[in-house]
Amino acid sequence: MLPLRTVRLLLRDFQADDASAYLRLREGAQFGRYYPAQECDHAASQQLLVRFIGWQHEQPRRQWQLAITRAADGALIGSCGVRVQPDGSASFGCELGEAWWGQGYAREAAQALLDFARDQLGVQVLDAETLLANTAAQQLALQLGFVALPEAGAAREFNGQSWPVLRLRKTLY
């Protein structure tokens, strides 16, 4: 099953020694602009990494948050995941460090993960949410074939304002 390979990337399970690289990729000012600050600090990022590694040991495994690494040099550049529900649907998310934005890595990694979710995990429907202000995440989802749902997600409150949430869905079968 794993790792997943693309032309330029290798998607694999996270390891404990990914900690420093994972913390670095989440600390950019632009990376965190759509999150409450405390969700991107080192403590929160470390907790996420511990959670991702813990998911690898669940039986049956239903949560797959994979490290996105460049095949050429092994550099950790982001993460991409699906969290499978008992009904065959799943939620989807993807993050890249700022240094790797605009190079097609997110789309390449996400497509590999979507293929894996369909072919290996039997996922039929994928759901995603993003802040309405996060046009890059919306563009990625639309390129992957997600469609916006008419009902909005619950708004998120942080940084002194309310952030509307867009819900998206992709049917894999």
TrEMBL record:
Alphabetized Pfam families for the sequence: Acetyltransf_3
Source superkingdom: Bacteria
Matches recorded under PROSITE patterns: GNAT
Domain N-acetyltransferase as annotated: residue spans: 32-173
GO terms of molecular function: acyltransferase activity, transferring groups other than amino-acyl groups
Keyword Transferase recorded: yes
SUPFAM superfamilies: Acyl-CoA N-acyltransferases (Nat)
Transferase as UniProt keyword: yes
Listed Gene3D superfamilies: 3.40.630.30
UniProt cross-references to InterPro entries, sorted A to Z: Acyl_CoA_acyltransferase, GNAT_dom, N-acetyltransferase
UniProt keywords, alphabetically: Transferase
Protein's name according to its UniProt entry: Protein N-acetyltransferase, RimJ/RimL family
Species name: Chitinimonas taiwanensis DSM 18899
Lineage, top ranks: Bacteria, Pseudomonadati, Pseudomonadota, Betaproteobacteria, Neisseriales
